[in-house]
Amino acid sequence: MNFIKRGFLSVSRKKTKSLILLAVIFILGNVISGSISIQQATDNVETSIKERLGAAATVELDYEKIDQMSEEEHMNLEISNLDLELIKQIGELSYVKYYDYSFSTWLGSDTANSYLGEGVEERYEYDGPSYDFQLKGVNYAPVLDFEEGIGNLLEGRAFEDQEVENGSSVAIISKKLAEINDLQIGDNITFTNSVYSYDYTTGEEKLETSRDVILEVIGLFNPTSVSVEEGDRDQGMFDYMNMEYQNTVYVPNEVVISEVTYQFEEYLKYDEEYAAIVEEEGISMTDYYIPIFVLNSPEDSRSFAEEVQPLLPEIYKVSSSGDQYDSIAAPVESMSKLAGYVLLIAVVATVLIIGLVVLLFLRDRKHELGIYLSLGERRARVVGQILLEVMVVALIGITLSLFTGNLLAQGISETLLNAENTQNQYHDMIYYSELDAYQTNVTMDDVMASYEVKLDFSYILIFYIVGLLTILVSTIIPLIYIVRLNPKKIMM
Amino acid sequence: MILEAKELNYFYQDGDSRRYVLKDTNVGFEKGKFYTILGQSGSGKTTLLSLLSALDSPHSGNVLFNEQDIKKIGYEKYRRNNVGIIFQSYNLIPAFTAVENVLVPMAITENEIPEDQKTVAYNLLDYIGIVKSKADRPVNKLSGGEQQRVAIARALATNVELILADEPTGNLDEEMEQEIIDIFKKLAHEHDKCVVVVTHSNEIAQQSDQTFMLQKGKLSAYE
């Protein structure tokens, strides 16, 4: 009769003791199981929501910080633009999958019509400057917006590196814009870069000069469809953003820089006062880039921000699409923290309680262990037998509490989430961010919907490991204390 | 000699002074003989037996089994393969039946045991006087004498040549005591075992082949 058989025989012969141990393990197992369930569910929420929010990041002015500044600080505030070299340095970090820095301007056109929205045909005519089209500069030839699924290239091609480098007169326009203006791949689209002067006394604008910007259409894109339910309160905003995107024209950054430079230099000819300020302060219009960094994974956001922040000029900050998560998922986060504490306490309590229970049982069994040792049984096998006995009972108790603990966690988390949700009805002021285009808007309802306490493989695995390890530790400690004695001391 | 004790010393430390239980004890035992060690309560009989059976280790001196130091054999291994120990309070596993108790050391020893261990265990119990119906009972349902018989069967289960017994009849009535002593004599004389019994009973000592007297830590032959 080897130690394994002895162990099983002891469990079945000492039914009352086995049942007491089972009950203790079952109760403590429920606490551990419940805490792990809640933690797993909150982790899943974090992963899925951050996945939805995307892995984009940018470096931008910290408007929140600026708003909090005193008047004196505002007066002394000097905002320096982001250095292109710094953007490139950040873009080379290992967290970055790809990046772009964009320079944009708005132009009008005498020959091309802009998209006004679905079903809108009537155009409002007026004599002032028209800036219907956004020329969005691109430095990353495959176009970051297409890579990130904001739009997709339907026909033609993206840019070539050489075109981006040379600032070639090529453009990718929306399919809608092409249809309205009857344009095909290879056709030219002409925009007008108009320079207006402004009369500060009359408030009138006067066209001083203009030049045509002729671009060859090399590709057509379509915005990625976003489904908005009828009657949704965001419908108006969605329509506006869609219209703006349909009128966006992707061109190499150098094209935008050239047009902005032209406009700026020409304007200075007609505004001597401003020209003097520009000369004195060395103002330039061509070094304001908006960088977008797409990270390898949403999980990298924190490390990326930690590494980039020290490199940035004052009052700049790193924003990532995952930032939104922190503000909306506060109830889930606090529940995750609570579950973490409960888990820690439960594990410590289990070690102590099971340890004491096992010690109590071992007091009765001490003599028996001495007998095995006096018969020459190896200490490891004596320890093994008791461990086996406890682990067999523990396995049953833990398996039972796996299901009940999960059910318990469902009930508790539902109550806690509802309570937290009603307490968190206030919203902070929302600042516009360049990242808005790269992230999906996620609400508390989405967070609640993605919170799901379920029995998945990783949960079961973690629970068994934590549960059995805890019981293993709490059994081994008193056991070692006994078997390290010599048989005479145990038995006599 | 199958078992020898050489210059054995064992003491209890009491502050700066030592109280010797055994002092420079020398003794030898042969196969095929039934020995008794006689002494008053607290004379150190049980300590000597626990050193001979490797349940404890001496402060100095050696115990030799077949001329090999049991320290070198390894205490655990020595208990597993070379000696059968019988206690006054039987020391059986209460949750197990008599036959299960006999089966326990069979799984522990490295000595060769016939494959059908259960049959061997039943036969051993039967030889000692425990019939099959009793062999299947939990040991705490057996009488004192029967439990001691089970303990003897357990000591014999590993097929050892050396049996050490500590006051094996201390809890038994006279009739039962004689039956147990008869078993020991049979084991020594018919099965060529070396049986060493620690006792305070002169009656038992008189029936042994040789008796040693333990007095004030010194062991001497008793005539």
Automatic annotation (TrEMBL), chain A:
> Which domain of life does the protein's organism represent?
Bacteria
MacB-like periplasmic core domain: which residues?
21-261
Keyword entries, A-Z: Cell membrane, Membrane, Transmembrane, Transmembrane helix
For whether the record's keyword set contains tRNA processing, the answer is no
List localization entries. Cell membrane
Supply the Pfam families for this chain. FtsX, MacB_PCD
ABC3 transporter permease C-terminal domain sequence ranges: 342-487
Q: How does it sit in the membrane?
A: Multi-pass membrane protein
According to the UniProt record, one GO cellular component term is: plasma membrane
Designated name of the protein: ABC transporter permease
Q: Identify the species of origin.
A: Natronobacillus azotifigens
UniProtKB/TrEMBL annotation, chain B:
UniProt-recorded Gene Ontology molecular function terms: ATP binding; ATP hydrolysis activity
State the Gene3D superfamilies in the record: P-loop containing nucleotide triphosphate hydrolases
Q: Which UniProt keywords apply?
A: ATP-binding, Nucleotide-binding, Transport
CDD domains for this protein: ABC_MJ0796_LolCDE_FtsE (cd03255)
Which Pfam families does the protein's record reference? Answer: ABC_tran (PF00005)
Q: Name any GO cellular component annotation.
A: plasma membrane
InterPro entries according to UniProt:
AAA+_ATPase, ABC_transporter-like_ATP-bd, ABC_transporter-like_CS, MacB-like_ATP-bd, P-loop_NTPase
Q: Which residues belong to any copy of the ABC transporter domain?
A: 3-223
List the PROSITE patterns.
ABC_TRANSPORTER_1 (PS00211), ABC_TRANSPORTER_2 (PS50893)
Q: Does the keyword ATP-binding apply?
A: yes
Family named by the database record? Belongs to the ABC transporter superfamily.
Q: What is this protein called?
A: ABC transporter ATP-binding protein
Origin species, per record, is Natronobacillus azotifigens
